[in-house]
Write a structure and sequence with these properties.
Elements: E1 4-15, E2 18-29, E3 33-37, H1 44-51, E4 59-64, E5 67-68, E6 78-81, H2 93-104, H3 108-117, H4 133-145, E7 151-155, H5 163-178, E8 182-187, E9 198-203, E10 206-211, H6 213-220, H7 225-235
Parallel strand pairs: 3-8, 3-9, 6-7, 7-8
Antiparallel strand pairs: 1-2, 1-4, 4-5, 9-10
Length: about 240
């Protein structure tokens, strides 16, 4: 496995004539949980779409697992979970995962294994539309895990969930990272930052900081990571 799962150099993204990502360079270490944090509209989703090859970029270079972002051979090694549910509400958990399993070329054994991995064994034959928000998020996560991705990109996976469900999902993420999966997880909830190995702090399309949570605390003198982020914004002139 390469040292870095994602390598970005001078990335520029323009949409509607307006810059969305501005000259961004960064590296995401392999086998880590990296949190992508910042207010809504700061460019987090655009950056993630660029990494998985779903976004037209105006300039720069992105390499994912040693290959150019969007390369066809990355489809079997990169999982992407969007903010909106990526599964079908009128199908059961089993039917959803069997369908996505056929798409990525895995059998029923892997479907059963993945259901157990996300703790949905008791809901296997329930319609997704009858599940809670947290359970539906787990079905989306399971669909992305079917092909055993080496990089998992999660766009605000805990949005709208209560604190208990959020904590359960973060335990899942840590277990995946411990098993060698690299996770890039976006959020605008700063109290989730402490769950990450590294942080990418964004504002208005720019990368303000790339550091570990403890390094951010040391730099700002703030124990609370939300206040630490605000301190960084103030030091950079609020932009």
């Amino acid at each position: 496995m390469p040292e870095f799962a994602v390598e970005i150099e001078d990335l520029e993204v323009v949409r509607g004539g307006n810059p969305v990502i501005r000259s961004m360079s960064l590296e995401v270490g392999a086998g880590t949980i990296t949190g992508l944090l910042g207010p809504s509209g700061c460019g987090k989703t655009t950056l993630m779409r660029s990494i998985v090859g779903a976004q037209i970029v105006a300039g720069g270079r992105i390499r994912v697992l040693g290959r150019a972002a969007g390369s066809q051979d990355l489809r079997s090694t990169v999982g992407y979970v969007t903010q909106a549910p990526s599964v079908y509400g009128d199908l059961t958990v089993r039917e959803n995962l069997e369908y996505f399993g056929r798409v990525v070329g895995v059998g029923d054994d892997r479907v059963s294994e993945t259901v157990s991995l996300v703790g949905l064994e008791d809901h296997f034959d329930r319609l997704v539309s009858s599940l809670s928000g947290g359970e539906t998020a787990r079905v989306s996560l399971a669909s992305a895990l079917l092909n055993r991705p080496r990089l998992l990109v999660l766009d605000e996976p805990t949005v709208g969930l209560d604190p208990v469900l959020r904590a359960e999902l973060w335990r899942d993420f840590r277990e995946l990272a411990d098993g060698g999966v690299t996770l890039l997880v976006s959020s605008h909830v700063m109290d989730e930052a402490g769950e990450c190995d590294d942080l990418l702090l964004m504002r208005e399309g720019r990368l303000l900081r790339h550091c570990a949570p403890d390094a951010l605390r040391r730099e700002t003198g703030e124990e609370d990571l939300g206040r630490a982020f605000l301190e960084v914004i103030e030091r950079t002139g609020g932009s």
